[in-house]
Amino acid sequence: MPNRTRRGRVQALADYLISAGVLDPAEQDGRAWLEALHQVPRDLFVPRRAWADPQDNRPMHAIDRDVDPGTWWDAVYSNSAIVTQRGDGSADVTDTNASPTSSLSSPHVAAEFLRLLELRPHHHVLEIGTGTGWTAAMLAWRLGADQVTTIEVDAVVAEAAAGNLKVAGFSPFTLVGDGALGALDRAPYDRVHVTCGVRDIPYAWVEQTRPGGVIVMPYMPPSGHWGEQLRLDVLDDGTAVGRFHEGASFMMMRSQRRPAWPPYSEQRAMSAIRLDPRAPHQALPHGFGLFLAAQAPHVAVTTAGWEEQDDGWAWVMRLRDLEGDGWALATAHPGETGTEVIQGGRSRLWDDFEETYTRWLRDGCPDREQFTARVSADGQSIRLGRFKE
Known about the structure:
Elements: H1 3-19, H2 28-39, E1 49-54, E2 61-64, H3 69-76, E3 80-86, E4 100-104, H4 107-116, E5 125-128, H5 134-143, E6 148-152, H6 155-168, E7 173-176, E8 189-194, H7 203-207, E9 209-219, E10 228-234, E11 240-247, E12 268-273, H8 278-283, H9 288-295, E13 299-309, E14 312-321, E15 327-332, E16 339-344, H10 349-362, E17 371-376, E18 379-384
Parallel strand pairs: 5-6, 5-8, 6-7, 8-9
Antiparallel strand pairs: 1-2, 1-3, 3-4, 9-10, 10-11, 11-17, 12-16, 13-14, 14-15, 15-16, 17-18
Helix pairs in contact: 9-10
């Protein structure tokens, strides 16, 4: 594609990010990231065959630069996430029966996380999850390659990223390994940029970050709902505290994927309730998910949605206990005012879930901005309001 056509597409993407309020050209940081969009062409980090996931009402679709170059270019320079691997490389990238396991984030979400870093020229950055290498290149353009370390757990993905970076003319320090361990040999860092979903925040990231440093990540609550953008500020006492910003959904860090759930236990109880399970489910991304993480972190929502049953369609929510064998199913049938609940195991999981939802309502439905996260050597915690020593 001629450079002038690429420039036009990059400018259209930049205009979108400005109009969406993600990057502000009136601010120095916004201008820098807008210039980075031009200096780090996104197309150099997208494979010839991939799967596009537009972040609007357009359907997901395969893209192939050789077969349909126009559609490929349109996806690359639109607000689309690009899936580049499925099944840890065991499935074709267009096989939607296999879970996506590596991708290039949508420009909107990527820019939001990069903006949260509040970079300065002297900063040394650790990136967890190289992916295709695009954000590593953006960071290297801003700071210089010697100030950026990026680590990727998948050797095949890392090799492809290294090739992309070389073609684009950037050479950050690249590692293959478990990002949950950080990169101690290159520490300390001023910023940690995490590009995979995290449920349990590794303390190594706090240990390897200077006091006053910043860690940004997609925090994926145990409830299993759409994730949250979390920015942590590292303190001089070995802890980090921070607040939640916009929503964000990312593929989980591989070491934190949930194992296969065991079969439902035979011990069970059935009851009828008045609460429609769709109400708490719809509230998860609006503060209830974080309230649940704070008050009942053992409760995981594994699935929720319409399911075909022997007597027709029903809306079903399934819960699992992250700390035991508890489980629950809540089923709402069309046209019926009640909900059937079955729960089993040693815990009354639905009772915990419903009681926590009621407390959230009673507290005025606090949204994500009202919660605080804290990470220390003893673990992590989330609470409504600020942490006080």
